[in-house]
UniProtKB/TrEMBL annotation:
Keyword flag Disulfide bond: no
UniProt-listed InterPro entries: DUF2938
Xref: Pfam families: DUF2938
Alphabetic keyword roster: Membrane, Transmembrane, Transmembrane helix
Keyword Hydrolase included in the entry's annotation: no
Organism: Croceicoccus mobilis
TM regions (residue ranges): 6-29, 75-93, 105-130, 142-165
The name this protein goes by in its record: DUF2938 domain-containing protein
Length: 170
């Protein structure tokens, strides 16, 4: 693998894992303070496993999730965070890892991730498109936008830290 590819993978790992961790910390704080947090990643893991059986929407929300469902869901969550970070140089140009800018993190970290959450994950979890089946739809949509604003801000912050460390050879 050329060194540029390795550098890109390191960038994506640092920014993707860091920003996803920031999102998870925000979700934990939100759950404790307002009673509304992020996704149940065990149920997401169950949904992912159901896809292999042709089940597009989660069928069972009641049974406790298994360790493999939990692990699958959390791994998927962080892999998506890394994938979003890999997309930043696609939108922001190949210099993005050393010269980050705000527009790509708005496009990827806020807009794309919010749309994916409301158009893929919510329907898959039984909440309907844009949370149409949820009792507290407006609050959930507002939460998604606020949480993904935190995610986008963290993407930018970790991108800046990564860029600052590059002259040091880190």
């Amino acid at each position: 693998m050329p060194s540029g590819t390795i550098d890109l993978l390191i960038f994506a790992s640092v920014v993707g894992i860091g920003s996803t961790l920031a999102l998870d910390l925000f979700a934990a704080l939100s759950r404790r303070t307002i009673g509304m947090g992020g996704s149940d990643w065990g149920l997401v893991g169950r949904w992912l496993m159901g896809l292999s059986r042709g089940e597009l929407a989660l069928a069972d929300r009641e049974t406790a999730t298994s360790a493999i469902e939990q692990a699958s869901g959390w791994l998927f969550h962080y892999a998506v965070g890394v994938l979003y970070a890999l997309m930043l140089p696609v939108v922001g140009g190949t210099d993005f890892p050393v010269q980050p800018s705000v527009p790509p993190v708005i496009v990827i970290g806020l807009v794309l991730s919010s749309l994916a959450g409301t158009m893929i994950l919510m329907p898959a979890m039984g909440g309907g498109l844009f949370g149409a089946r949820l009792e507290n739809r407006r609050a959930r949509i507002a939460y998604v936008i606020i949480a993904h604003t935190v995610f986008a801000a963290a993407q930018f912050g970790f991108s800046v830290i990564f860029a600052m460390l590059q002259p040091l050879g880190i």
